[in-house]
Amino acid sequence: MTLSKSGLTPVAPAEPASPADLVAAMRQRLAWRNLDAALLDLVAEKAAEFARLTPRERAAVAWAEAVISTGKSHVADEVYVALREHFDDEVIARLTAIAGTAHVRARLGEAD
Fold first, then answer.
1. Which of 3, 19, 28, 103 has a CB 3.0–4.6 Å from the CB of 51, allowing a cystine?
2. How many helices (H) and strands (E) does the chain have?
3. Domains in the chain: how many in total?
4. What is the DSSP annotation of 55-79?
5. E strand or H helix at 83, and its extent?
6. What is the pTM for the complete model shown?
């Protein structure tokens, strides 16, 4: 994963980022948003947890994130290729449905 201003961009790095590197990158990225220290610590903790995920888990999370990202009409080929290394068509369909359903429910909840 690499970091950009728009968020995490799934890319197969030459060397996997260590949890400490990912936390440092997240802190740097979020610092410009003037987040309070408690929120920054929470985000850094979640980033460290993500760094400890297996490649299979990372592929599923990246897929779910790509599916629910607003403003995109398609998922990047790299995300799909990484997902196909670990899951078959049936599981991908289920992951897509779960992510999409959760996203719609969250959006409907925002409308209240």
1. 19
2. 5, 2
3. 2
4. HHHHHHHHHHHHHH-TT-SS--HHH
5. helix 77-84
6. 0.57
